[in-house]
Every structure is written in C-alpha cells, then in structure tokens.
Specification:
By secondary structure, the chain is α+β, with helices and mostly antiparallel strands. The chain has one domain. Helices cover about 30% and strands about 20% of the residues. It is built from twelve helices and 13 strands. Strand 7 and strand 8 form a beta hairpin. Bound molecules: zinc ion (ZN). Zinc ion binds next to loops. This is NurA domain-containing protein. It comes from Marispirochaeta aestuarii.
C-alpha cells in the first residue's frame, strides 16, 4: 500500500506494473500481459456436468430465511471503549406475498408491514476494548454473557433450545445422546461430553461451572483480557444458523407436512469452520435422518461473494442458457473439481468440506443474467472425490430450483427477495418484530 499523503509531502502514487524489475522474467511477463490484455478466447468452459432445472417440479409454499449483521462501535473520549454489536434475524415470507411486491419499485410501507408481521430478531453486544466485567473474572464473565445471550428471553430462549436439540440430537427419540466431546474452557481438560439434556455441569478437574454454550468453543476467540471482533462474528454465524434451525426444529416437532413444503434459506455457505465444525456431524445426522423417513428438508445457502462467485462469473458467458427463456441449468461441483480448479490445492489433506460443510456447492445459471452459487445438503458426507455429481445427491434440489424463479429480485444482480429482506432486518438497529411463535401461525 502506498503511503498516505501528509501535510507537507504529497502521497506516493501506486507504482505501475511496468516499473517492476521482475519483468525480466518470462513468467511474470505472461501474468502481466494477461492482466492488461485479457484473452477471452483462452477461457474455456470447465468440464463439469450441467442439468436442466426440472420444469415440472412444484415450487415450495413457505419460506424461512435467516441472516446476521455485525457492527463495531467505538466511543469518543478517554479511555476509548469499543464494543461489537451483533444482530441476527429470522423471517418468514411466502412466495405469494413476494409476488404482491412490485419487483422494480417496492413500496417501503409495504415492506415495513411485511417485516413487522413476520420477522424476529435477536441482538447482543460484546466488549472489545476497555470494558470490564465486574465481580467475576473475565473468561467466566464472557462465557456467562454468551450463555445468557443464547437464552435471550425476548426470543423465549428458542435458539438456545435449538442448540440443545442439535447438541443432543433430540430428533432421535429413545436414544439419549451425550453432547460432542470438548475441552474445559478453564483448565483445558478433555471432557467426554455433557450428559443428555443438561444445561450446566461442574468440570471434574477444576470444578468450574461449564455451560452448554461452552461446547461451541467461542471463548477460544478471546485473548487474556479482551474479546475480539472474531468472537462477535463467530457468535453471529452460529446464532443465525440456530435461528434458521429453530424454524426447522419447530416444524419437525409440530408439522411434517408443512416442513416438507418449506424452503429454508441461509445467507452464506452451509459451513462451520474450526472448533465450530464439531456441530457439523449432528446437522448432517438430522438432515439424513429426516430423509430416511421421507421428510425432505429443503435447505439452501446462497454465497454472494468469494471464490466460487468469482469463479462462476469468469466463465458464465460460455454456459447455457445464453438467451432469455431458455431452460435454467445447474451443476453440482465435485470435491475433486473444487480442489483442482477452484482452490488449486495439490494433495489436500482432507476431502473437500469433509469436516466443515453440511451443504455442497451448486452453480445455478437461472437466466443469462442471474447466476447463483448455492449450497445444498447431501445428508451424510459423500466420501468420494467424484461426488456430488448427480441431481439425486442433492436433497430436495428440484423443488428448491423450482422456487427460485418465484423469489428472484430485480433490484440487485443475482439476489433473492427473502435474503434481501432478512438482510434489511438484521442490519437495521430497530425493527418491530413479532413473537417467535407468531411466525408459525397459519401454517397448515
Ligand atoms: Zn476444568
């Protein structure tokens, strides 16, 4: 990065590539040449299988979407205090309601009414700098803050109940599973997992109180005396996932018929990295259990930025449909293709997404101008580098694809209305919201 302009000296301007000595290298020259003069004819369509969207599949009747936002706030004055403000939202919006909105000029009052009737949000705050927690030590205080935030009484503790449902795999009636194994946050002792349905235990080694939320491992993002912004963003990611699964859990417990007719949309990939990946096997177990008894969970994540989006944009002009009205097509990306062509990794240690993903990458070219990178679950991980490669591998893909045209946004490129709306709720500081249970009224 060039120096910033000071008061007396003018700033350094960014040097042009042409001034670099390394240009003597033949390979560097090739790179620079392609950067400056892209050769469109050298881009070829990658060797992947495309499937036409099934035009006879029925669109889903109901939609839930979740999203989160993160704001970093700093005080003025001395000492400078900093906090991270996290908000997550869950929204129910049905395709028939979306059709009533003017796609080009949606009326703000109409949108506001829709949101207040059908959205629920959660907010909490994390100390980042120069904020003390009185009467207790820092680590314990932060762990308690995370525990209390999850149990947010405004949401009747519903996302917390969902976390418990996932941790103890409560969909398996009759089996009382323990939680996944984890490390004591205070003394680092290996704990075999908490007993079915417990909220708190005492560490057998150091006698500290351990909360159910400690299993997630958010405290690992903290340093000695401060929380980091990564703690807040990890909390947001876990919480928005639990918000969406709250809708799934509710319908699983109350009404399988409606559950099968619902699209669950998540802003972002179906991925939990690092210590959070210990929840991934449980999520996969649920989705495949539901499938095994004939309950298709239509779950879909949309990646709006990142490697896969850039990759798709780079060659989408070579892929059908090239004309308006031509059939939409999708392509599941195999683990092998992702490693070699998208990530360009040689000899990766694990198969792609093996530990972290509960959805596979699927490209969708809806129309010449609507490109989507979606994540769709397969249930259990398909441990084969040539998978997924069939439409049957992706759970509920046909009805998910049939629903997309009903919820396309014309305000932004490759955007979906429910994600746009839930994004609006999650990023506004104050919004009227319904109670969680109200979201489920009128479903039959
Ligand atoms: Zn301990």
């Amino acid at each position: 990065m060039p120096y910033q302009a000071g008061q007396r000296l003018s700033g350094e301007s960014a040097s042009k590539l042409g001034h670099l000595d390394v240009l003597n290298s033949e390979f560097v020259n090739q790179v620079v040449e392609q950067f400056e003069h892209p050769d469109a004819s050298s881009i070829t369509s990658p060797d992947i299988d495309w499937f036409e969207v099934d035009k006879f599949a029925r669109p889903l009747k109901y939609i839930f979407a979740s999203d989160g936002s993160l704001q970093h706030l700093a005080s003025s004055g001395n000492p400078k205090r900093e906090v991270s403000f996290v908000k997550t939202a869950l929204m129910r919006i049905d395709p028939t309601k979306i059709e009533q909105i003017d796609p080009d000029y949606p009326h703000p009052n109409q949108l506001r009414k829709l949101m207040s009737e059908s959205a629920q949000h959660h907010a909490t705050v994390f100390p980042v700098k120069n904020i003390r927690i009185h009467g207790t030590d820092w680590l314990y205080g932060m762990r308690k803050l995370i525990y209390d935030s999850f149990r947010d009484p405004q949401l009747d503790g519903e996302p917390y109940k969902t976390l418990k449902w996932v941790v103890y795999q409560k969909w398996e009636e009759g089996t009382k599973s323990n939680s996944p194994a984890f490390e004591c946050p205070e003394c680092y002792a290996e704990l075999p997992g908490m007993k079915y349905d417990t909220d708190q235990i005492e560490c057998p080694e150091c006698q500290s109180v351990i909360f159910l939320t400690d299993i997630i491992g958010l405290h690992m993002e903290m340093s000695e005396d401060s929380a980091s912004e990564t703690l807040a963003s990890a909390y947001m990611m876990i919480h928005e996932t639990m918000m969406l699964f709250t809708a799934i859990r509710y319908l699983w417990q109350k009404n399988h018929h409606v559950l099968k007719e619902t699209l669950f949309l998540k802003d972002g990939p179906l991925t939990l990295r690092g210590q959070y990946s210990k929840l991934v096997p449980n999520l996969r177990n649920f989705i495949s259990k539901a499938k095994s008894i004939g309950v298709t969970i239509h779950l879909c994540g949309q990646e709006k930025t990142g490697k896969f989006v850039d990759f798709f944009k780079g060659y989408a002009h070579l892929v059908e449909p090239l004309e308006k009205g031509a059939p939409s097509r999708f392509s599941p990306l195999t683990h092998k293709f992702i490693h070699s062509e998208v990530q360009r990794k040689r000899d990766p240690k694990y198969p792609y997404g093996f530990r972290t993903n509960y959805g596979e990458k699927v490209l969708l070219k809806q129309s010449p101008h609507h490109l989507f990178v979606l994540n769709i679950p397969t249930g259990q991980y398909l441990d084969n580098e040539n998978k997924p490669n069939r439409r049957e591998d992706l759970i509920g893909v046909d009805r998910i694809m049939a629903t997309i045209p009903k919820i396309l946004s014309y305000r932004h490129e490759s955007a979906l209305v429910p994600i746009e709306l839930v994004n609006g709720i999650a990023s506004l500081s104050n919004y009227p919201s319904a109670t969680v249970l109200k979201l489920f009224s009128g479903l039959e």
